[in-house]
Design brief:
It is built from eleven helices and 14 strands. The protein is α/β, with parallel strands linked by helices. The protein has two domains: 2-143, VC0802-like (2-Layer Sandwich); 148-329, Rossmann fold (3-Layer(aba) Sandwich), CATH 3.40.50. A seven-stranded mixed beta sheet has the order 2-3-1-4-7-6-5. It has a four-stranded mixed beta sheet with strand order 11-12-14-13. Strands 8-9-10 form a three-stranded parallel beta sheet, covered by helices on one side. The structure holds S-adenosylmethionine. The site of S-adenosylmethionine has 22 residues, from α7 and β9.
């Protein structure tokens, strides 16, 4: 059994991102306690879990209990799979029901009694305790360093446009499509979504109506070492004219229409046409992840085209931009 901690800002999207990766890996979410997930999966899932964008860490779940006393009792019976030195670290979630202040010391003593040495500054093994409705202890295997994602935020890229999604969110959109081979972003802008997909080893296809975006997206992809791409200048409402192939997956973040040219009706018309156009180039059973402002009924409009809703996640960006991220299946 594995454990995984998702991030708290888009928790439902984060959970479904994990679910999508486990569907590829052949595992499932076995339980949830706030941001803590129990995963029925083994090491064959690691390459898929390593793709995640909206997660904090994962590891091996060693034990769980309904009280601190029970946790400590069970801990004595476990053969702790510790390599080198260790440290116990506690995560007190917002729904924590127990007093865990003294727990690192007490659990540390139990593990120490099995012959392992504590090192508080540079442990080889991190024992993680999560406190929620229940208490859990596990061994951290992978931490998703925020610095990896921060380094790809818009202002760090050679071609800068402030319109980009956070790299963690772009990554999650890619994963929610369950793409394993390729992905198309028909309104790629500076290429933020394509960067995250390319770093996963997917072949990336991009379209934008503005020549400077096609050039800029290429600059960004190359800067992050991505070489397997095909970018085109063109119109997202006419994709079948641009490609004579169908795509395994599509992910995109259309313009929100704050600019005068895209205000109101014209913008909604663009969204409708883009949905139809994407339908035309998506493989049967393929997934589309797409963002729309809340003022546009993305669910109803996509269903008219034939899409089936798989997920819908709300995000308030600022007071004049609230949006939903949608996942649809053809
Ligand atoms: C919000 S931006 C995409 C940002 C991108 N997801 C990123 O993270 O960098 C939307 C892009 O759609 C492009 N666009 C607008 N209308 C389009 C159309 N009809 N066909 C293709 N691209 C279009 C704009 O030029 C803009 O670059």
């Amino acid at each position: 059994m594995l454990y995984l901690e998702i991030l708290g800002n888009l928790p439902e999207m984060a959970r479904d991102e994990v679910k999508a990766m486990l569907e590829l890996a052949g595992g499932e979410i076995a339980g949830q306690d706030y941001l803590f997930l129990k995963l029925d999966a083994d090491e064959t899932a690691f390459p898929y879990l390593d793709r995640l964008g909206l997660s904090h860490e994962y590891g091996e779940l060693i034990l769980e209990a309904d009280s601190i006393e029970e946790l400590l009792r069970k801990a004595e019976e476990v053969d702790w799979p510790i390599k080198g030195t260790f440290k116990v670290d506690t995560e007190t979630m917002a729904n924590c029901r127990f007093n865990v202040l003294d727990l690192p010391r007490k659990l540390g003593a139990v593990i120490h009694a099995q012959g392992f040495r504590v090192n508080l500054s540079k442990p080889d093994t991190l024992v993680r305790v999560y406190c929620g409705e229940r208490v859990y202890a596990g061994i951290r295997l992978r931490f998703f360093d925020p610095k990896d994602f921060e380094g790809r935020k818009a202002h760090h890229r050679p071609f800068f446009r402030p319109i980009s999604l956070h790299p963690r969110v772009s990554r999650a959109l890619v994963n929610l499509t369950k793409a394993t081979r390729e992905i198309l972003d028909p309104m790629m802008g500076a290429g933020g979504i394509l960067m995250e997909a390319g770093l996963l080893g997917l072949k990336v296809y991009g379209v934008d109506i503005k020549p400077e975006m096609v050039e800029g997206a290429e600059m960004n992809l190359r800067h992050y070492g991505i070489r397997d791409y095909e970018l085109k200048l063109g119109d997202a409402t006419r994709l079948e004219e641009l490609f004579d192939k169908r795509f395994e997956a599509v992910a995109t973040d259309p313009p929100y229409g704050t600019s005068a040219t895209l205000a109101g009706r014209e913008r909604d018309e663009l969204y409708r046409k883009v949905l139809e156009s994407i339908w035309g180039v998506l493989e049967e059973g393929g997934r589309l992840a797409i963002a729309f402002p809340t003022s546009f009924d993305g669910e109803a409009e996509a269903e008219k085209v034939g899409f089936k809703l798989v997920g819908k996640y709300y995000q308030r960006v600022h007071k004049s931009l609230e949006r939903y991220f949608y996942v649809f299946e053809k």
